[in-house]
Amino acid sequence: KEENVRRKIELAKGKKKRKGFALLVKETQSLLILLNKQAEFPIICFTSFLLAVIVAILCIAYNNMFLIVPLEMIATAAPFVYIRHRSISYKKIINEELETALSIITNSYIRNDNIIVAVEENIAYIHDPIRRVFKEFIFNCDYVDSDIKRNLRLLKQSLNNAVFSEWCN
Questions:
Q1: CB < 8 Å & 24+ apart, contacts of 119-124
Q2: What are the b/e assignments for 145-163, b being 16+ CB within 10 Å?
Q3: Does residue 53 carry a pLDDT above 80?
C-alpha cells in the first residue's frame, strides 16, 4: 500500500501506529535487519504469496468459497508469524546485550557528560546486533543531522524495548 506524505509524517512523529498485518510485516522486516538477514525478506513475502495461491486453489477445488477469505488471511500471515515466533530466543540475546551496552554507555556518559563521546568510546565493547544500532546513531550525529534530540528519538525507534526507550528519554 502506497502511503501518502501525511501518513508518513504521522508515523515518524509517533502519532499514528501501524496495526494488524502491516505491523506484523514491519516487525518481521526490522527483525531481519537486526539479524543482518534482510535478503530473506523477499523470500518470506514470496512464500506468503505462494501459500495464499495454494489455499485459493484448494478452496476452489473443494468448491468451498466461504473458506477462501479466512484461510487466505492465515496463509498470508503464517510465514511472518513463524519468523516472529522464532525470534523469541533471539530477543533474549538482544536484551542481555542491550543491558550490557546501556550500562557501559551510561557509566561513560556520567563520566564525560557527552552521549556521542560515550557511545564512540564504547562501541568496540558492544556486540553486533546492538552495535549496528549505535553505529547508525553515531553516523546520523556526525554526517546526517546534528540535532542530538532528534537522533535519540530515531535511536529509540530502532529497537522495540521499553527499557531502551526509557534510557533514550
A1: none
A2: eeeeeebbebbbebbebee
A3: yes
The residue with cell 557509566 is: 107
Three cell numbers written together for 140: 546520523
CA distance 16 to 6: 10
Q: What is 72-124 written as a DSSP string? A: HHHHHHHHHHHHHHHHHHHHHHHHHHHHHHHHHHHHHHHHHS-HHHHHHHHGG
Q: pLDDT tens for residues 57-81?
A: 999 999 888 888 999 999 999 999 9
Q: What angle, rounded to 10 degrees, do the helices at 68-112 and 41-61 form?
A: 160
On the CB side of 39, how many CA atoms lie within 13 Å of its CA?
Answer: 1
